[in-house]
Amino acid sequence: QGRMWAYTVGFTVLPHVGGFLGWFMNRKEIPVWYEKLKKPSWCPSRKIFPVAWTVLYTGMGYASYLIWNDLGGCSSKAVVPLGLYGAQLALNWAWPPFFFGARNMKLALIDILCLDGLAIGTMCSWYRINKVAALLLVPYLGWLAMATCLTIRIWKDNPEQKPGKSQ
C-alpha cells in the first residue's frame, strides 16, 4: 500500500520536473525576448501558463500511473503505451529550450507538430487500457492544439526572428 502511494506520487510529479527545468532555464528569455514578439489577440496571458501546465502535467502524470498500474508495471505490454508517453513528454520538455533558449521558432514548430502526433497516439493507445487515463489527456490535447496554433502564428508573424541570440 505504501509503495503504491510512492509510485502514484512519482508518476504524477515526473512531468513537472521537465516543465520546471524548462521554465527555470528559459525564465530570463520570457521578459527579454518573448514579450517583444508579435502575438495574436487570443494568446493567453503569461500568468495562465504556469497554472495550466500545473493542471495538465498533474493529469497526464496521474494518467501515466494508471496505465503503468493497469499493465502490471514495466511489463512488455507497457512498452508501447508508456514509450509513446515518454516520447511525447520528451518533446514537450524540448519545446521551451527550442523556442525560448535557441529562439528557433521553426524547430519549436517541428517539435510541437511531432508532439501533437505522439500525444494523440498516446491517448489512442491508452484508451483500450484505461478510458479514464485516456480522458485525462483530453485537456492536454486541447492545450496542445492552442499551443500549436500559437506557435504557428508567432512563427509566421515574426519572420525577422532568426535562430540564435544575436539581437
Automatic annotation (TrEMBL):
CDD domains: TSPO_MBR. The keyword Cell membrane does not apply. GO terms for cellular component: mitochondrial outer membrane. Its main location: membrane. It holds the Pfam family TspO_MBR. Keywords: Membrane, Transmembrane, Transmembrane helix. The keyword Membrane applies. The chain crosses the membrane at residues 6-26, 47-66, 78-95, 107-129, 135-155. It is found in: Membrane. It is a multi-pass membrane protein. Gene3D superfamilies: TspO/MBR protein. It comes from the Eukaryota. Belongs to the TspO/BZRP family. This is TSPO protein. It comes from Uria aalge (Common mure). The lineage of its organism: Eukaryota, Metazoa, Chordata, Craniata, Vertebrata.
